[in-house]
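Field: COMPLEX_INPUT
Field: COMPONENT_COUNT = two
Field: RESIDUE_TOTAL = 662
Field: MODE = joint
Values follow.
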Amino acid sequence: MKRIIKISDAFITCASSVVGKQEAEGPLGDIFDICDRTDKFGAKTWEQAESAMQKKAFSQLMNKSGMDIEEIGMVFAGDLQNQCVGSSYGLLDFDVPYIGLYGACSTAVEGLMLSAMTCSAGYADTCVAVTSSHYLAAERQYRSPIEYGAQRSPTAQWTVTGSAAFAVGRKGDVRISAVMPGIVVEKGINDASNMGAAMAPAAANTIYAFFKESGHAPEDFDVIATGDLGYEGGKILCELLASSGLDIRRQYTDCGALIYDRIKQDKHAGGSGCGCSAVVLASYFYPRLAVGKIRKMLVIGTGAMMSPSSIQQGLAIPAIGHLIQLEHGRG
Amino acid sequence: MKRIIKISDAFITCASSVVGKQEAEGPLGDIFDICDRTDKFGAKTWEQAESAMQKKAFSQLMNKSGMDIEEIGMVFAGDLQNQCVGSSYGLLDFDVPYIGLYGACSTAVEGLMLSAMTCSAGYADTCVAVTSSHYLAAERQYRSPIEYGAQRSPTAQWTVTGSAAFAVGRKGDVRISAVMPGIVVEKGINDASNMGAAMAPAAANTIYAFFKESGHAPEDFDVIATGDLGYEGGKILCELLASSGLDIRRQYTDCGALIYDRIKQDKHAGGSGCGCSAVVLASYFYPRLAVGKIRKMLVIGTGAMMSPSSIQQGLAIPAIGHLIQLEHGRG
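Field: COMPLEX_OUTPUT
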């Protein structure tokens, strides 16, 4: 089975990002488009704050790109909230054909992958991929409300409060030249406070298969970035690949390791959540690809596909890694 | 904005269905492939029973089609459980590229739509769309465990215990000739026991736009079927369309109205859930399309995109209707 899908005509044409307080105070704080230091985005509940944030990211994309809503053929959206209500309420004000996704934290890359396929095939001139996560909504849904004061494990990651939106079209400056959907992988990790370990084997599966099938070497890429393996998962990923004879350490980074200051902010194992890879890709990597500071990179969106009830029932965590290949270059 | 996407080369090539006791006792009981009258499918919990059922539907599709797992380029899957764990655990044993969807009860049609687009564009030779819902898992997640004995409202629908899988390829006997993704619509309904009313305006939006853009008349179709509006929502849909000058009553039916006996089984407003449209389409409509008993039909997958917490927070229910056009004919 061939897993890599070559894409002939798809480009990221614009990207927007919106973040909360912790993200604004991190090392990338200055590059995000919009920040709300209350984390509330004018809403009454944390769940609704996430929708408001996603709405802001979408509106900001419209502003930056100068696009008209009518030009969008399809929006691919999803988030971590039960039944993905972050997105269904977040995009309610926009009359656009809506494809709901659930890829846990891999959703940004999943949406970009489907947007690239849809545009390149000519089904739409422009697609939008949008996703979000909110620390306070995620904490009380997956774990406990922060008021409870539960202690965090050293391997735990911090859900990014952030949302990003990407416009994908057939002309632009950053080419999506290939995509490769992941396979669901579960290697026995059932500790919901160690999602990096649960997701690393899925990322390794995708990356290993990509290099094997493409014939590329890690040196062909300036950067190989995972979405949110964090310090723990990133280390496991590099070890797993090294044991298969693939050394990506010189090119490797992780969005969850970039977004917070490891010493000053101490978010334990790093950032996570749908918003993590989304805002880092939108505001850190995309501009660098656009100007050619990065020529060619791989992004592997990583997702842990469990639920609170599957964890309560003692099941191990299935995970996934979707890959896109991005290249500098006008088309 | 043009919303209809014409598909040149995509066919449903095989379909499988698995159901529980109530569905087996309904008027369509004899046509489903597999039934487990315990509703447990050999699993320990209702959530895991749903995954086991989805696994069975996928395996049955492999058996019926004679396909090899290696032939599947992509599987599009999703369900109603939090974080779609029905699918992530259900398909864990199969090494196939996995695209997770969330479209609430519209997921079967959403998956078929994306499968058709993916195959016709040549990104994969064969795709699989799979979905499921389980009455007992859904009841305790969305409402109360049935042991609680809560009284049901007359407008409430009954979540179908069922899973179906569809193979889509470039040769077959039932053509997916057009698809049209829905727009999220919310018209103020916040009664989670009346999802038909919440979803009807979304279905009406899609159907009205389809006829306007295509120039077709309802008479051009043998059947126009919605996924799970039930009796209540189906009536509202026909009234909404009639008030816009579109009369579909002669062609109209609803999978949620077909699956249970209205008098003998009394499921109030009819069936619902991801599995509802999936199993009815797989085992009732698909064989009729394959032999030409139905020449041309529209299926509108309907989904209510709320969550228990959005309902608790008093929000109205956003809904969606995705459309596919199916035609008898070998390709």
